[in-house]
Design goal:
Elements: E1 5-11, E2 17-24, E3 30-34, E4 39-45, E5 53-54, H1 62-67, E6 75-76, E7 82-83, E8 87-90, E9 93-96, E10 105-106, E11 119-123, E12 128-135, E13 146-154, E14 159-168, E15 172-173, E16 177-178, E17 181-182, E18 196-199, E19 203-207, E20 213-219, E21 231-232, H2 242-246, E22 251-255, E23 264-270, E24 276-282, E25 286-290, E26 313-318, E27 333-334, E28 339-350
Antiparallel strand pairs: 1-2, 2-3, 3-4, 4-5, 6-16, 7-10, 8-9, 11-12, 12-13, 13-14, 14-28, 15-27, 17-26, 18-21, 18-23, 19-20, 19-22, 22-25, 23-24, 24-28, 25-26
Length: about 350
């Protein structure tokens, strides 16, 4: 039986105590997750030096997660990415949402899943913790009372398996993901531009000037968006390419060849020196790659580290952002009393 460590993580402004849950495997790899936002706080990889390397950005206490607008490590919902104009139609009815990003709704609005404190259910036999929450009908304008779950399991194969689930009492739109910022050189090691990345997608969503997809789907070939082969992230990030100028770097959705319900590898990330590799698997048709362009060092992270420009990157498996606004995108609709399930797997290699 595994031993799941539970420790206090600080008190929320409501007075509720938050907690941190630590999972370890036989290889001395460990992860830490807080019940606030069901957020991945640390991924500690064993190193030959004997000092573990923490490869995700985070905070030392829950107050950092409560105050931040960066979504570090958080479970995202109701809708990962943007919904254009803060509005969508479903079953002939229009829903108006809280607008929090250039006139659009981003990551569920001002009070998304990242700002909920979940109830934890540890399972030592499976080396897993499941975080559960109830989301009210009408929160941020979305329909349906939701029962959601976000679980983290650590295997002895150095895999983190995240499973997002939900049920609703009304038809609704839903797009859940994890928003960890990765730096495989170490969370406090500086720029990720020398990391190398491969994305298993030959098309991406074009952005308008408001950073929201406009419905157009473009081919990556001949552009700086081509990561079909392992490529240094900084190699073309400064190219005079209009899509990169809009978001000051990469912040786009890549379209992944998709068979519903099938988990497959969608990306590979390597550290600057190649000594750590992370493979990303998912069963959804999109992957948002964000190169940390809006990190500016304004908030103190773990150990007082200031996370500056491009010191972490996000790889967010998901449905397409703005899918409720475009009928030719895969539909991100959860029907009443049906079950939503999204599995993400991260597999780490220390070389």
């Amino acid at each position: 039986m595994k031993n799941i460590e539970i420790q206090p993580f600080g008190r929320l402004k409501t007075g509720r105590e938050a907690y941190l849950y630590t999972l370890k495997n036989k290889n001395n790899m460990s992860i830490r997750i807080t019940d606030y936002g069901a957020s991945l706080e640390a991924v500690l990889l064993p190193q030959k030096t004997g000092v573990p390397r923490d490869v995700v950005l985070g905070f030392d206490s829950v107050s950092g997660y409560e105050d931040t607008a960066l979504y570090l490590g958080a479970t995202i919902g109701r809708y990962a990415g943007q919904i254009r104009g803060g509005s969508f139609w479903l079953n002939g009815e229009q829903y108006s949402l809280f607008k929090n990003d250039h006139g659009n709704t981003l990551h569920g609005g001002r009070h998304g899943f990242d700002k909920h404190c979940f109830t934890a259910s540890p399972d030592e036999d499976k080396n897993m913790v499941t975080f559960l929450a109830s989301i009210e009908d009408g929160e941020e304008g979305f329909p349906g009372n939701l029962q959601i779950g976000s679980s983290y399991r650590l295997t002895d194969e150095n895999e983190i398996i995240m499973v997002h689930t939900a049920r609703s009492d009304k038809d609704t739109v839903l797009n859940m993901t994890n928003h960890s910022y990765y730096n495989l050189d170490g969370h406090d090691s500086g720029s990720i531009e020398d990391h190398r990345l491969e994305i298993c997608g030959s098309r991406f969503l074009e952005l308008s000037e408001d950073c929201c997809p406009n419905g157009n789907i473009l081919d990556v070939l001949g552009t700086p968006m081509d990561f079909l082969k392992m490529t240094r992230i900084g190699e073309r990030i400064g190219a005079p390419y209009p899509q990169l100028k809009i978001s000051e770097g990469y912040d786009h959705n890549w379209n992944i060849e998709w068979t519903e319900g099938v988990i497959r590898k969608i990306a590979v990330l390597e550290s600057s020196s190649g000594d750590v590799r992370m493979e990303v698997f998912s069963d959804l048709p999109g992957l948002q790659f964000y190169s940390g362009n809006y990190l500016n060092g304004s908030e103190a992270g773990k150990g007082g580290c200031r996370y500056g420009f491009r010191t972490g990157l996000c790889l967010e498996p998901q449905y397409y952002p703005a899918a409720p606004n475009y009928k030719h995108f895969p539909a991100a609709v959860l029907r009443r009393n049906e079950t939503y399930k999204h599995t993400i797997k991260l597999k780490f290699y220390c070389l």
